[in-house]
Every structure is written in structure tokens, then in C-alpha cells.
User: Which sequence fits this backbone?
């Protein structure tokens, strides 16, 4: 492993300059600097020695080095070919437990049939939420996921019914996992400094999982939340037709005049059961 000081903006800039690279806003590139924060994030995954861990968006390896130190069997997914070259050829070329998949993780992760024990990443919020939703819909369900994301996204992930942040994404995140915000990270901890604060979310898999078609469930929930001010009944009509809607809601024990934002996970699962 190389000995780059990940806390030093001067050293990071020197590496990028020496390769003629610049940070890309397009890929949400902001490096997490303080070692205690990176170490705390890595610890949230628990004992990962000898276990398969995926890291999405390693950048120059700020979290990667922490995961390698803890003995993880690590596969990283990086979209930036410049960073990928540095990771493979300089930073971790001599690490037997490190491997790298280049390209858009949203596509490349689908090509791997093995499921990891843990997934970690410090990600731009749009990529982070798409990856989490995609994993859950495809029933790729690691024991634990630890993501550093924009604070507002984390607020949505653990929001409960009736809360303004409760959304279809909250429901999907809480289907198989119990997400919680481990701690917040102020924007000053990143280089370059982003316009938003971040938070670290931990998603631990529940003991008992629902045996359902997750894609169909996700579609139902998105449909119900598609127009938040409409009633459940009105949002459901495109799926059931007008003739069936009242019968389905009645069988599921749901008030037709209710809004999706007040329905619990159990309500939504019952409704899904009635539609199958
Ligand atoms: N992990 C590093 C750290 O904490 O300092 C870098 C984090 S930076 C916020 C996000 C990283 O995700 C960048 O390296 C970026 O190139 C990468 N990235 C963005 N979109 C991606 C995608 N769709 N697939 C894989 N990597 C992606």
C-alpha cells in the first residue's frame, strides 16, 4: 500500500497534478480528509476480516486503505478511469485482497453474481440512492451497508410515517433493513468543500425478510407516493382500475382517503399482498 497522507490537501493535489487530473463535479468527487472520521466509518461495518466487502467510489482510496487494514476481501467500483489507474497501478497494486472494477457501479455491480457481506461508500447522493434502491429491488441484500451521503438523503432513509421526509425511498430502505444515522459530517471535512453537509447511514439487515417480488412492491410504493397530495385511492386507480380500487383497499384495511405518507410498511405490504 502506498503512503499517501489522505489528510493532506497538498499531497492529494500533488498526486492529481502529477497525472494531469482534475476533480470532477460530474462524478461528485469530494475526498473525505480526517483519519478519525474515515476510521469511524470503517468500524461501523463491524468485524470484516476475511469477509467480502464492496466499496463504491473509492476515489484515491481514503476509505479503501481503512478497509484493507481491517482485512476485508475488497472489491472497489470506480467510474473515473484516472482514479482507477492510480488505485490499480500505484496505491494498492501490491495488495492481494484488493480488486477493482472500472465503470459505472450501477451497471458493473449487476454483472457480479456473488453477494458481498458488506457494501460501503462515500457517494454523490443520486448515485447512492439509485444503488441502494437497485440492490433492494434485485434482492442483493448484504448483511450491512454503510454509506456517507448528503444529510437530506439520510434523513429520508430513516424517516417514519407522518414525517415530512417519509417517501417511497424511506419505505424501500426500511423493507429489509433498519437504517439509522450514525453521525453527521460537516462539509469542511471534505476537499474540495461541497455545498452540503453529509451523514453516515448504517443499514443493518433485518433477521426476517419478506418473501415478495421487490420490484413490484417498489413500483406500487412509487406509484402511491407519485402525487403526495392525492389520496391513496386516486394514486392507486391506474394500477387497479376504478372498478377494483375500493375492494382492494377494503381488503387491505386501508382508508381510501388516506395519504401515502401516513401508511406504514405493514400497511403497504398488506396492500401489495392484495394486488398480487
Ligand atoms: N471514497 C473517496 C473518499 O471518501 O474520499 C471518494 C469519494 S467521492 C465523494 C465519490 C467517488 O465516487 C468518486 O471517486 C467518483 O469518481 C465515484 N463515483 C461517482 N459516481 C460513480 C458511479 N456511478 N460508479 C462508480 N463510482 C462512482
Assistant:
Amino acid at each position: 500500500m502506498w503512503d499517501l497522507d489522505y489528510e493532506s490537501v497538498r499531497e492529494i493535489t500533488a498526486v492529481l497534478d502529477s497525472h494531469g487530473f482534475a476533480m470532477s463535479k460530474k462524478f461528485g468527487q469530494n475526498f473525505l480528509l480526517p483519519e478519525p472520521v474515515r476510521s469511524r466509518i470503517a468500524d461501523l461495518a463491524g468485524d470484516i476480516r476475511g469477509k467480502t466487502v464492496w466499496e463504491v467510489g473509492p476515489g484515491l482510496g481514503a476509505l479503501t486503505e481503512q478497509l484493507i487494514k481491517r482485512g476485508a476481501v475488497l472489491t472497489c467500483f470506480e467510474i473515473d478511469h484516472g482514479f482507477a489507474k492510480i488505485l490499480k497501478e500505484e496505491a494498492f497494486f501490491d495488495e492481494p485482497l484488493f480488486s477493482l472494477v472500472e465503470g459505472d457501479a450501477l451497471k458493473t455491480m449487476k454483472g457480479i453474481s456473488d453477494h458481498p457481506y458488506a457494501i460501503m461508500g462515500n457517494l454523490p447522493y443520486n448515485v447512492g440512492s439509485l444503488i441502494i434502491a437497485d440492490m433492494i429491488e434485485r434482492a442483493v441484500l448484504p448483511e450491512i451497508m454503510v454509506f456517507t451521503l448528503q444529510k437530506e438523503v439520510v434523513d429520508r432513509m430513516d424517516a417514519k410515517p407522518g414525517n415530512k421526509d417519509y417517501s417511497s425511498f424511506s419505505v424501500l430502505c426500511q423493507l429489509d433493513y433498519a437504517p439509522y444515522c450514525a453521525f453527521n459530517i460537516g462539509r469542511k471535512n471534505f476537499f474540495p468543500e461541497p455545498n452540503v453537509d453529509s451523514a453516515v447511514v448504517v443499514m443493518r439487515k433485518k433477521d426476517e425478510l419478506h418473501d415478495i417480488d421487490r420490484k413490484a412492491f417498489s413500483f406500487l410504493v412509487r406509484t402511491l407516493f407519485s402525487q403526495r397530495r392525492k389520496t391513496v385511492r386516486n394514486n392507486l386507480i391506474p394500477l387497479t382500475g376504478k372498478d377494483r380500487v375500493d375492494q382492494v383497499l377494503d381488503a387491505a384495511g386501508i382508508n381510501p382517503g388516506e395519504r401515502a405518507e401516513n401508511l406504514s410498511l405493514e400497511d403497504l405490504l398488506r396492500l401489495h399482498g392484495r394486488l398480487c
